[in-house]
Write a structure and sequence with these properties.
13% strand; two-stranded antiparallel sheet; elongated; LysR substrate binding domain protein; 1 helix
Amino acid sequence: MSIAFASVIISCTPGALDGLPVEMAWHVRYRHDPAHRWLRALIGEVMTDFKDKTAATAMTSPT
């Protein structure tokens, strides 16, 4: 299954990626910048929603 949005395509991986770390890194000068704090929070929310949705799909998909 693939999902397309604008020029981004999200596809299932051929195997499980359990335990794969996902991290964000920013230069220290932007640590307290309001725009960067907002962007980091937004990315965190999107990734959490994506993780929840993919987990729910995995639980309901036939194997």
